[in-house]
Specification:
globular; eleven-stranded mixed beta sheet; about 250 residues
């Protein structure tokens, strides 16, 4: 039987899974695979399986935010996923981050979905072997990386960007960043901490690889060809990182 939302089954899914928030970034990524098979495009979940340099890899989207990311991880875990990599974008909180990769060691849990799985004291941490593999891939693709701590939140317009409603309600969006910067947080996204928590509960290998496309409060933004090139590099970096991980001999007990 296929899963409820992703419409995937065990024979469709590789042990290696890359998750992209944007379903259309999956279309960019699948062009780098050999013999990609389209599994389904159901709701926000767009899924392919193919090979890259001889290694079977599944790619799927999660949509925006932790609740739908949890559905994607749950259903592909049911299908035999053993390694999960979040591939997406992040808002950088340090001035020199634009265009750099943030590959966090761990994440601050300010989203609520992971709270339904584990208490706040449970850490959201990435697998060190995957981190090291992705770091090497970044350098081999002529980009720079940061291994810091990221923060995952639920509310984009209530916590991360001013809107008509936030102004009407006198919500101080900038205070969000002031409150977390004292903890030396490098960036903010909407999925990472949930995915790190779930990966550890599932006893699989998990990490997050994010491209900094915007700085705090839109102070700087990657646009046009720079943004397009950054997205293309992100796709190749994550694929190459999985190959490095696979070939270094890290095995599952």
């Amino acid at each position: 039987m296929s899963t409820l939302y992703l419409k995937a089954s065990k024979e469709d899914i590789s042990k290696y899974v890359i998750f992209s928030g944007d379903p259309w970034r999956v279309e960019i990524l699948q062009k780098l695979l050999d013999n990609p098979k389209h599994i389904a495009f159901s709701r926000e979940f767009n899924t392919y399986t193919g090979t890259y340099k001889g290694v079977p890899i599944t790619i799927s989207s999660t949509g925006i935010g932790a609740p739908s990311a949890a559905i994607a991880m749950e259903e592909l875990y049911d299908c035999g996923m053993e390694v999960a990599v979040r591939m997406g974008t992040v808002m950088g909180l340090k001035d020199d981050m634009l265009g750099k990769l943030l590959i966090p060691n761990g994440a601050m849990r300010m989203e609520s979905t992971s709270d339904t799985y584990a208490p706040k004291g449970f850490p959201a941490v990435a697998n060190i072997d995957l981190i090291n593999s992705m770091n090497r891939s970044v350098l081999s693709n002529n980009r720079k990386y940061i291994n810091g701590i990221t923060c995952t939140m639920d509310g984009f317009y209530s916590q991360m960007r001013e809107s008509r409603l936030s102004k009407k309600m006198n919500t101080d969006i900038l205070k969000t960043f002031d409150d977390i910067e004292k903890y030396n947080i490098s960036g903010v996204d909407m999925e990472t901490s949930l995915m790190l928590v779930l990966g550890n509960l599932m006893d699989i290998k998990v990490c997050s690889v994010t491209m900094t496309t915007v700085l705090r409060n839109l102070k700087e933004v990657l646009e046009g060809e720079d943004r397009k090139k950054a997205e293309e590099d992100l796709c190749k970096i994550v694929l190459d990182g999985i190959i490095i991980y696979d070939r270094e001999g890290y095995k599952y007990e």
